Amino acid sequence: MAGGKKKSSTLPSRIPKTLSSTWQDKHMVLFKAEYTFLVTAVLWFLEIGINIWVIQRVAYTEIDWKAYMDEVEGVINGTYDYTQLKGDTGPLVYPAGFVYIFTGLYYLTDHGQNIRLSQYVFAVFYLITLLLVFRIYHRTKKVPPYVFFFICCASYRIHSIFVLRLFNDPVAMMLLFGAINLFLDGRWTLGCALYSLAVSVKMNVLLFAPGLLFLLLCEFGLWKTLPKLTLCAVIQLVLGLPFLLVNPVGYVSQAFDLGRQFLFKWTVNWRFLPEDVFLSRYFHLVLLLAHITTLLLFALKRWKRSGNSIWSVLTDPSERKETNGSLTQIIQTVLVLFTSNFIGMCFSRSLHYQFYVWYFHTLPYLLWSGGVKKLAHLLRVLILGLIELSWNTYPSTNYSSLSLHVCHLIILLCLWLNPTPALLSQKSENKAKRH
């Protein structure tokens, strides 16, 4: 009882000390990662007002929302053959999770007619996504708080993708960031389930799959990873079952069409190429080989712990010698997942404007995780600005697409020069001893 009273009496006394410390360090609040929670909390509440202002004052632009509603309306009317489901912009090309989620939105928004309500629903999605992203940054403490202003207030394109365009990409990414938070909490099975649900909304989330597979093998070894992969597959099977029973080939070929051809007029990243090269299957094959090769190089040289064979990840974790601190493990988990996705973005056959949300919230983490110490804060912010400018240039130009690739290359090289997990662990231990 006495100990309980002492604890309860000292708790209020900590608040003035914390406030006093914050006031004394006020000039460093935007630069010290310890203040991530404070800065992100202020920005999150500010974003509520920003989203309301955008919805009320900026004109909504119809692009895919009506097509989404037409596609799910076909299912509601009893059509389960994916080849027969289509909207204004073409056939339904998203997996079954998309159908269920947007069917719910169909009913919630008066058959898709209440656009204003739809915008507010997506504003909620935006705020949830920010909470999930901020929690990742708060857990890792890799990025100075001032950078979060660029994640929030500075990006017109991201606000547009969420509340002015109502794309399905933000829904998939919201679920993905939820899964990553579960991974960081050590809830791998539930995280894999939520990850699979994100894939069922839009398959761009598969770009995280190589990194996730590597982490699962590191965490559990081969045999204990298989049940989690099976869970992901079973979720896809159950969600798609009504459509698989009617036309399995049609469902798989439409919902998971990896060879789908993109239109040159919408590309953000390959504008400087001739259109015939952009459409060439040989060019697509080169990009695929480059993607796979880069992933393998990172897995072999940067993701695995130095001194260990890559085959060691297949063994039971209890038989391995290495141990990592919890913070180092969290940092490595986020870095592997974000890098896996980023590599996919670098070698994508085409990037459309709504695809920006696929990696926008991960860019600061990747930039501040790079191994080049001399890459100054100003240069990192400049890279973020150039990427933002490239995605806001419409239509894209030779210069905007080239600058995007240059920025991607700089980030990729910095990630390649990043210390290996063993060195990260050693640095974390040394830092903990100094403190």
From TrEMBL:
Specify the domain of life of the species encoding this protein: Eukaryota
GO terms for MF: dol-P-Man:Man(5)GlcNAc(2)-PP-Dol alpha-1,3-mannosyltransferase activity
**So where does this one cross the membrane?**
35-55, 92-108, 120-137, 143-164, 194-217, 229-246, 282-300, 351-368, 403-424
Q: What is its EC number?
A: 2.4.1.258
Q: In which pathway does it act?
A: Protein modification; protein glycosylation
Q: What is the lineage of its organism?
A: Eukaryota, Metazoa, Chordata, Craniata, Vertebrata
Task: Give the way it sits in the membrane.
Answer: Multi-pass membrane protein
Please provide the record's keywords in A-Z order.
Endoplasmic reticulum, Glycosyltransferase, Membrane, Transferase, Transmembrane, Transmembrane helix
Record's protein name:
Dol-P-Man:Man(5)GlcNAc(2)-PP-Dol alpha-1,3-mannosyltransferase
